[in-house]
TrEMBL record:
Family: Belongs to the short-chain dehydrogenases/reductases (SDR) family.
SUPFAM superfamilies reported in the protein's UniProt record: NAD(P)-binding Rossmann-fold domains
A single MF term (Gene Ontology): oxidoreductase activity
Organism: Sphingomonas turrisvirgatae
InterPro entries: NAD(P)-bd_dom_sf, SDR_fam
Entry keywords, A to Z: Oxidoreductase
UniProt name for this protein: Short-chain dehydrogenase
Entry-linked Pfam families: adh_short
Cited PANTHER family: OXIDOREDUCTASE SADH-RELATED, RETINOL DEHYDROGENASE-RELATED
């Protein structure tokens, strides 16, 4: 039985991905700091083989422990490591506290770095797949979410680099680039604002993409041969604009900061 290890498995894209892979015959390992969320995900999965593993992705040693725990119940096999855990930090960059900036870097970037580093030996053995959640904010710098955007650019760059470095080892690497997925992360309020990210997206007339669409894209990424997997209309528009309309993208970024 193939096995997938999912960080951020207690909610959002992680939960939807766990449900999808479990429904298609995979063993699922859920990792999160949210114990109650993991229990709920496991309940939703039902009778399919699933295990929960408490993990703070900032802890490199914790990664070794969690992956070893999962391997102990999966027969030593891990076919996919889905580096999905992340946090949103929005608002005026200069007004964001140093603690918030550091937390975003440590979770969104270093959590992915440690997951790739710890997961390498399992994926090399299984000739498996590393999937990293980047973002449409990693396509072109997005005003109002500067540090978040920076971490997602870094995740995208790491994915591209490892795609080249690991291909001869039989490991496939994929970068997921979602735009506005309908999850709780959009309910956060940016620094210096009275409106949630969800309100801002709605006010800009942009779309919310169902979380199930993101989960299906993870499935497609694991079974496809591409590197970048876009999720949502906004992500696709940004990808096109960043390639062919960089001047327009710059104007949009400046307009968004007003």
């Amino acid at each position: 039985m193939q096995a997938i290890f999912i960080t951020g498995g207690g909610s959002g894209i992680g939960r939807a991905t766990a449900q999808l892979f479990a429904s298609r015959g995979w063993r699922v390992g859920l990792a999160d700091i949210n114990e109650a969320g993991m229990v709920e995900t496991a309940r939703l999965i039902g009778d399919a083989p699933v295990s929960t593993h408490w993990l703070d992705v900032r802890d490199r040693g914790g990664w070794d422990e969690a992956l070893a725990e999962f391997a102990s119940v999966s027969g030593g096999r891990i076919d996919v490591v889905f580096n999905n855990a992340g946090v949103g930090v929005g608002g005026d960059f200069a007004s964001t506290t140093t603690d918030e900036l550091q937390r975003c870097v440590d979770i969104n970037l270093m959590g992915v770095v440690w997951g790739a580093h710890a997961g390498h030996r399992y994926l090399k053995e299984s000739r498996g797949c590393l999937v990293n959640t980047a973002s449409a904010a990693g396509i072109y710098g997005t005003s109002g979410v500067a540090i978040y955007s920076a971490t997602k650019f870094a995740v995208r760059g790491l994915s591209e680099a490892l795609d080249g470095e690991w291909t001869n080892q039989g490991i496939r690497v994929r970068a997921l680039l979602p735009s506005f997925i309908d999850t709780a992360i959009l309910d956060g309020t940016p620094v210096g604002s009275n409106h949630s990210m969800r309100d801002r997206v709605r006010g800009a007339g942009l779309e919310f993409t169902p979380v199930e669409t993101a989960a299906q894209t993870v499935w497609d990424a694991v079974h496809g041969d591409g590197l970048h997997y876009l999720v949502g209309k906004t992500a696709r528009r940004m990808w096109f604009g960043a390639r062919f309309l960089r001047g327009s993208m710059r104007k949009m970024a400046r307009a968004g900061s007003k």
